[in-house]
Amino acid sequence: SLTLGEVQMLVELFYLPYHHGPLAQHLLEHFRWLRANSLSVGVPATAPDDCEGMQWRGRAQSFQLLCAQTCRLHSHFVSSASRALLYDLHPYLWDIRNMLLAASAFVLWLGCQSITAPILLGGDAEPWARRGGLFGELQALLPVGNSCDLFYHPPPLFPSSQLYLLHPLLPPDKVGATARRGGPHHSGQSSPLHGLGASALAGRLLGSFLSLSPEYTFVLEDEGGPCGYAAGALCAEGFLQQRDSSWLPAMRHKYPRDLGAGAPALGQEALLFFHTEPPAVPLPVLRRFPSLVQLGTAPRVLDVGASRSLAICLLSALRANGSRGVFCQVSAADQQQLSFYSKLG
Questions:
Q1: Nearest to residue 216, comparing CAs of 168, 184, 170, 153?
Q2: How many C-beta atoms lie closer than 10 Å to residue 332's C-beta?
Q3: Cβ-count burial 91-101 (b if 16+ within 10 Å, e if not)
Q4: Considering only CA atoms, which of 109, 257, 269, 265 is closest in space to residue 203?
């Protein structure tokens, strides 16, 4: 059953229509302050006069802790509450969980950046664009807070107690991803075909973003490990030029076409991707939608709220650095990806 502390947290999250409880107030105060003072974290952590940066990182840590406590509350509530209470309150708690997953990842991303311009926020939104309560106030603090389609989705029919962690790509993640996509081995005697399917497929999905735009990459994890990603490029035109002129030739050299003989089907598919000229993106698309995004989750991720949180934190990061619009590249025959992006709105 829920502990007394968890019941108190639940009450403080949904206190009164026009008055927040202490937990909700702390979440909002930390998020407002962190967003307003994000320029102070551009100073290296080892600098002697890094008082402002240390204060920012301290408050960011407090905010992360509150977000994690709320996510654990959601998980415990789903597995402990009575069915009647669960279906009455779960939609509200699920919304807050999803919002805090995105807000927490966005704050972590701010701490990794040296943003030289103020964070761009939308103008005054129409009354219907945002909901009330804590959810609406947190939404308004995100750079994409006016994109109402991102924040409206019916809760799942069967609530899940699965815990998720969402964070920007960190150096250890990049090393692990490089190893998984065929990076340096400890032993130089491995066969080129060893692990070709997994490494080549990972290189196809994320290799160009890890190499050319790692600062806009986010990772979703559950109790089983990484289960989703969101990657983006702020300037798609420059990114695609670099991909075609340097990254793709390097991958073709690493994975020659004749390497596919006897390789797993996934490896052959990835090799075909490397050795096929990518379709050109029309210039009007690049002018109107200057940023490129790509998202994906493992089949075990059934909670669309976690996928939406991935999209929200990536789009917030791009918007914070001035992006006016995004596009994604999907094959017309890839019904699975088309359905995935459609569900994200």
A1: 168
A2: 6
A3: ebbbbbbbbbb
A4: 269
